[in-house]
Amino acid sequence: MPSNSSSSSSNSWWQFFWKLKIPLKVRILVWKACHDWIPTKVNIARRGIRTSNICDGCKIGNETTLHALWNCKRLRDIRGEWNDKKGTLTGNFSNLLEMLQIGIANKSLGEVELFCVVIWRIWFGRNSIKHSQLDFIWKDVINWSEVFLSDFHRATSSLQYMPSLNGNKLTCKWTPPSEGMYKVNCDTAVDRINSKVGFGIVIRNSKGEVMASCAQSMVANFSVKTAKLFAVWKSIIFSGDCGLTPCSFELDEACIVKWIKNGCHRDSANGIILNDIDLMVANLGEVAFCHTDKSANRVARGLAIFALKSSDDTFWMEYFPCCDNEMLQADMPG
């Protein structure tokens, strides 16, 4: 952040950033990079680990965050294509946050979202070469990012898959968590014909506002109980990645809640998942597991059904993928 930036302008930037319609993995990477929390060589050295600071890509500059994600010599084709398509980024930026706040902030919303995806893709390419020794085509980064972002926006706007409440009266209303807590609802949808399981997760605050949500799927032939247990496992990871703790986890399968709370079935076929949940919960701090009625879990159920119909895993922060917010509004307090 520039030294002359006010606190209010910084807050405005982050409010703007968290509302960008980009995948969660992109958002988290950019957020970490803005705080110099990604493991570049310079950042690793700051942690007391003895290593060369020289970038493996260009063999010239020190691998700072900004160097790794934009200034490296091997990224010159990406910079050139961006400047040709979107306009030159002018300014002598000292870090990525400064570059985003000053150099990118005057771009259109779509260009800011695209730039974030480009940054994520560059980091992916860097790690593919460094850790997996895989070939990576740098000149395709911007084109790949444009297609990826377009597919993501198309998936998030395909809302016809979200079930409606029309003609269905709620028998049990969702209740918000205590102030300062978050509530995580999760559910599944199983497609036996195509051997596919959809997972829906939504995290809300004490006002009923959506803080994060996701729709994921995987190829599997799980039983209903195993699928719901997997949903809990995924929701614990999701809430931790989003930093939305302390929280309570709510689902509509009573026996799963019992297994987790009472420490039973650890020697069953589901024991590996249950043991993994135990380990993750120990690192989360204050958490609780609760059973609820299916009618109070319809938002998560809707996301799980959406996941079955979508070809990609989708994540949202402070945004819910439903222009007809009927399910969500039905859950709102008051």
From TrEMBL:
Pfam families: RVT_3, zf-RVT. PANTHER family: BNAC02G40300D PROTEIN, POLYNUCLEOTIDYL TRANSFERASE, RIBONUCLEASE H-LIKE SUPERFAMILY PROTEIN. This is Reverse transcriptase zinc-binding domain-containing protein. GO terms for molecular function: nucleic acid binding; RNA-DNA hybrid ribonuclease activity. InterPro entries: RNase_H-like_dom_plant, RNase_H-like_EbsB-rel, RNaseH_domain, RNaseH_sf, RVT-Znf. Residues 8-74 form the Reverse transcriptase zinc-binding domain. Residues 185-304 form the RNase H type-1 domain. It comes from Dipteronia sinensis.
